[in-house]
Specification:
Number of helices: 5
Number of strands: 2
Strand content: 5-15%
Helix content: 40-55%
Bound molecules: zinc ion
Number of domains: 2
């Protein structure tokens, strides 16, 4: 009895897994995330960059290691459409475009992971 139930559970989990893998989850979240870059965000980002005019990436360290003018506001922890992370100023980093591009190209994830070379 119990054995039969377990087997049913297993097979339904398998079906569920197959179904889930069919959903384009990352694509959807990406799209929702893109929608967050609104006028309101631009204003907030501008204000943040006024307060932090120098790049805060680990290689520049706000002018202590290298002086580069920050032009983009980056999310330290990728928000992936999460509003709380998106608007959390402690999660923001002022970055020079060059540094930001290098970061996005070199890693996929947190700031803590140094790009592998
Ligand atoms: Zn930098």
């Amino acid at each position: 009895m119990a054995k039969a139930k377990l087997a049913t559970l297993k097979s339904s989990l398998k079906t569920l897994g197959n179904r889930l893998s069919l959903l384009p989850v990352s694509g959807r979240i990406e799209q929702r995330g893109q929608g967050l870059y609104t006028y309101r965000w631009k204003q907030a980002s501008k204000g943040f960059l006024r307060e932090h005019p120098l790049c805060q990436c680990p290689e520049c360290d706000e002018g202590r290691k290298r002086v580069r003018v920050a032009t983009v506001t980056d999310h330290q922890i990728p928000h992936r459409g999460d509003l709380r992370l998106f608007w959390d100023r402690t999660n923001w980093k002022a970055m020079a475009k060059e540094c930001h591009d290098a970061k996005t190209a070199g890693e996929d994830g947190g700031f803590g992971n140094a790009p592998k070379r």
